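Q: What does the assembled structure look like for these inputs?
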Amino acid sequence: MKFLSDNTAAVHPRVWDAMRAADAPDSGYDGDALSRRMDEAFSDLFGTECTALWIATGTAANCLALAAMVPPHGGVVCHREAHIEMDEGGAPGFYMHGAKLMLADGEGAKLTPQAIERVIDPIRNDVHQVQPHAISLTQATEYGRVYTPEEVARIGSLAQGRGLGLHMDGARFANAVAHLGCHPAEVTAQAGVDVLTFGCVKNGGMNAEALVFFDMELADVVRYRRKRAGHLQSKGRYLAAQVLAMIEGDLWLDNARAANAAAQEIAQACGSRVFHLVEANEIFVVLSPAEQATLRAQGFDFYDWTAPEGAPGAARLVTAWNTDPDHATALARAISAL
Amino acid sequence: MKFLSDNTAAVHPRVWDAMRAADAPDSGYDGDALSRRMDEAFSDLFGTECTALWIATGTAANCLALAAMVPPHGGVVCHREAHIEMDEGGAPGFYMHGAKLMLADGEGAKLTPQAIERVIDPIRNDVHQVQPHAISLTQATEYGRVYTPEEVARIGSLAQGRGLGLHMDGARFANAVAHLGCHPAEVTAQAGVDVLTFGCVKNGGMNAEALVFFDMELADVVRYRRKRAGHLQSKGRYLAAQVLAMIEGDLWLDNARAANAAAQEIAQACGSRVFHLVEANEIFVVLSPAEQATLRAQGFDFYDWTAPEGAPGAARLVTAWNTDPDHATALARAISAL
Amino acid sequence: MKFLSDNTAAVHPRVWDAMRAADAPDSGYDGDALSRRMDEAFSDLFGTECTALWIATGTAANCLALAAMVPPHGGVVCHREAHIEMDEGGAPGFYMHGAKLMLADGEGAKLTPQAIERVIDPIRNDVHQVQPHAISLTQATEYGRVYTPEEVARIGSLAQGRGLGLHMDGARFANAVAHLGCHPAEVTAQAGVDVLTFGCVKNGGMNAEALVFFDMELADVVRYRRKRAGHLQSKGRYLAAQVLAMIEGDLWLDNARAANAAAQEIAQACGSRVFHLVEANEIFVVLSPAEQATLRAQGFDFYDWTAPEGAPGAARLVTAWNTDPDHATALARAISAL
Amino acid sequence: MKFLSDNTAAVHPRVWDAMRAADAPDSGYDGDALSRRMDEAFSDLFGTECTALWIATGTAANCLALAAMVPPHGGVVCHREAHIEMDEGGAPGFYMHGAKLMLADGEGAKLTPQAIERVIDPIRNDVHQVQPHAISLTQATEYGRVYTPEEVARIGSLAQGRGLGLHMDGARFANAVAHLGCHPAEVTAQAGVDVLTFGCVKNGGMNAEALVFFDMELADVVRYRRKRAGHLQSKGRYLAAQVLAMIEGDLWLDNARAANAAAQEIAQACGSRVFHLVEANEIFVVLSPAEQATLRAQGFDFYDWTAPEGAPGAARLVTAWNTDPDHATALARAISAL
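A:
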């Protein structure tokens, strides 16, 4: 019973079906019918005109987006624990040609206008210091926290006022929207987001994410950069198929709801052990080494985590679109029984 | 009846099967059982110890390999019409951080030791000129020409003598080996090749190539760089599955033989129209605009090509692993009848 | 008697005087009075509003200018024998983050609209090929050839029509203008040049060139990039002093005229030995090894050069602002006497 | 009476003399007699074989050194307030092609082995996280603090144990050695430093620093990179002259001692106002806005500074090699009188 990560879950049957259907011959790269349908499909989904490009990984998607907004001599504000800072092996430095990540603090890996200002306000407007050109948010955050539309909009407003681009890393965007119950545009286009990394891989896809450009001019640069990064696959239709399967018929939300529901069931059982509010599909809990051992002995797999100060130990539990409800219930019970 | 390119052909059923079988849960990135089997599988295939990494595209594979051999201030010798120079959207400059492609000439896009020396010998050994650090060959070339083991070995010998790395872009390596009928090591490891881009996508794969390192130390750098380039997919097992399916049971050779055979049948019919010796699965033929129109009217799709001097026009015909033999026969007859 | 290169000549006394005068305390970087006078001084010189920044070397100046016009995924057209391609150790690749030099041909290292079109017209407007974003000319060229105002204007017109930036490497701009006898704006601002590398070092300066921006917005990026490249010297006033000393009182033209006159005297003596029309301060002459030895035995220093086809040998003779007229006369006589 | 910065002070007369003497013709770039003398001169100075290259600015010198030790996918540990992080306009990202600065804490901008370990120990040894490849110290630090030989040696030992390179930014190295009274090798070569940026500009030079390589292999890469960065000046002899003038006859120490002495005199007067121990030529003092105004009204120029918590205000006072002792005394008295 695996609660290690959502990023290795099996591919959803409807995604498989869509991929198989893409076997029919068509044009290469993104000249095929499926790839060409993406702009319209995402414009419909968001209720606003946008451009969408498939790309195999979130790391590449995030970094291509940022590189379109930030010149090599610029910087981008992100949370100190953001994926782009912690877990992308220096990809932002590569894609942005040496531009700088400017690290802000915030509870639950969430940024606030104040936290961003604490980073950018002390920067002298001279050539000796790297100047900020963009902000990158993660929705849901590395700790499974979710920005409300109002929270994003306040940051969007700051970005606009300072002339900064706004990127959203939505590796778990579906989980966030499923939690909020809002229209996806409310936390993106309407809140000032310029580009969204719309995650599919953690949510039932195989190897395709979508970059959604509400500022459509940015896509023109990214088209060239995607090829230049070796990310323009010749059989792109198999990626487009995945992405379209995810958004058509709301599979993305159904999958996210399933993962979130499993997380909620477990979170209830954890009670005050939880140290980051559970809003998406990740649960961070205080668990002593002995308790962890007990759970593992019952067949539950999960990662150790850094415990909050004073706690005897901690773990991260992640649910996925295909988490067996019985497994979630079993884990909830096992934790209650500790 | 499509003879446009092999890079959009459907995925082979055995590749599909292998991918479906990879749906079972396993570790992320390249920690799964399939990814961990790659070194051994390729070591068996080549009869020599090597390291193999999957990567989604040939462009990324080529450039990651080169970046491990060439420092940012260095250069790599390749043919003036090599894919890395002509068709990768500047990816070598990106991955190698500005290192330089040094362009050599040669019939059929083939390099020779002499052609390479004509490029590197005039370079003064001082800091004002970029120094060569590697050579990149394409097997088969952009014009479907194949290097014999002796030809590669002579270049390998030059590379070794000059302290240069040797990379082989094998997007159509299978077609070359199928043509040569040699052991794959004879044109690679035994001939001085340090890294091979082992192509699968044009040969029945979906979106996985393999980088095969005979100089295994280079792989250590590439592991980091692959992640840094956003090419370390979290569900890497679906890529490993494709690659393993290609090499296990010699599917790679069977597929290439089928493509080559179709090409030979068409080439026979083309006779003296052919202006690059047909050794793999590409046929370059003199065809006047009127002749092209005649063929297209019969349902044959192919690309116009730049005609040799004095010729009235030309076309490129490409076969693939799944080219219907009846289509190849039909095209051969239609050309004979012109 | 040295005719090796103009790039090691002594510093002109008036430049020394200006540097000494800069010893007085002032603000750091380019906040001092001298640096702040540069915009106005160059605007006066060119008769049009422009922005000017000092920079220690021509290589850095050229590459900073190009990097402001060309994105990392783009390219710049230059002559196959341009300094940026041949002699800058890969600096363009570094400064432009991997952007590509696109090499054109042309007699005497001069570009023409036709030669440029032969490079850019075959480039498909798709993401697989690097797209041109700028053109770089060298005035005078590597072979001492000079573009007339009309020739530059034709290229400027092409650049504008194609949406390309236009850079001029003017390491020997003074020699070119001295030869043409025109107003400096006629071959730059009025002919469509966006940025000029205004050379001083080869013309009596120590280590300061000026980047002159007729497209002044480009300077905003270059200010940041100059610092980022470690080229914003803290005692910038000593560089500004050099540049201002060169242009005030027309020292730049006086020095260039002296060098050109010496070259003309030698060229006259060379007669049909000359294989590049002598328009600036470089003379390329057919000289057999024996003749070279004869001259060297008489105390003349110069570089061997690649001989034109069929010629027994060749040499490059370069004069400088401080070439002793007696030395020039002596060399002219010695060549006549061969 | 200026106490703003040492980086704009006049050039020392002996440096001027050396530069004038370099006017005699010689080879270009670093082929001249002065440049060729640098290795020996620095080997003598440090009492150990080393290689030394001139370079115009400390920013370029630091970044070239780091780029020789750190691959683009790596990282370098430095203090959170190091010049390379705070004041070089992103130059490290440019020169290191996107490698990462890893920020450590420490009083007075000094690193300790413990502070470094707190940064590098949590880094998992996998491809998802950037791995450290070097450490960069600043001697004296941004706050005028000096590492003792033992302190450097402890960090050198850590570096060696972890396989990390060790770079020392010695923009104010002379002030540090003058303070320590030790042999310069004791805080560098003997303590495990691989490369030293030996500052001259702040200490009476015009625009030349020296990169001193105790790990001489690193110099081979830097030679190419210096050219590639546009920092190989053609009249390099004027830079070599500056550097040699600084170290010959111990001018570097004499100048530093003068600056340090002036700083000590002022520091004495400041008493408990001082909030960073004064060991070199910078004094950080608590001064209320009113006190600052009083001093400025008496003709003293200096920069405001961020005050320690609870303090009413602060200022930074910097002395230089040419600080008039009368000015220092006057400032000391004025502060005493506050």
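The first helix of chain B runs from residue 13 to 21.
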